């Protein structure tokens, strides 16, 4: 496999794009590729954190597992997203496990290189804080949803989120239903049942992993009810 041009890739990421060419080049020796196949674990909960990760391609899930083996998906990551920053800055071990849910490529940037970039560019520090703040905001939003919203509202909200990201009436479930259900804190059976209910109400049509949002106002109404 041909290695990617690390400096060029980082220069196109929102977090790093304002760094100067010399600053980007300084990150290259401290960056390594992590390639993985579907199902491969990147790190386990409790492993030491010595840097942050950026997803080049593929998908990654962050999850927690109980002693009984029940898994709770905390986040599903897509290309261009990063993770591990909070544990890196705190000097703590990872609070979750990370696993490829399809073949993918990550870049791991060492904590020492990140600290040097922060010291040389206050704007970089501000972008790191903004990214962490956004993740905390999304986490609080999810906690609020799981506390007050029923399963239909959660599924409708998830589909509307996909619709806004693609700006298209047809959205695709990028991962399997078990992973999505865990992310929404419902069972796979409940997720399938809600999709069937939305079809019966005329809000959506389902064709495999493709979801056609037939009646957008109705779906928005169901999320808000």
From TrEMBL:
DNA-binding as UniProt keyword: yes
Keyword Lyase on entry: no
Database matches in Pfam families: cNMP_binding, HTH_Crp_2
SUPFAM superfamilies, per the entry: cAMP-binding domain-like, Winged helix' DNA-binding domain
Domain HTH crp-type residue range list: 149-217
PANTHER family in UniProt: CRP FAMILY TRANSCRIPTIONAL REGULATORY PROTEIN, DNA-BINDING TRANSCRIPTIONAL DUAL REGULATOR CRP
Protein name: Crp/Fnr family transcriptional regulator
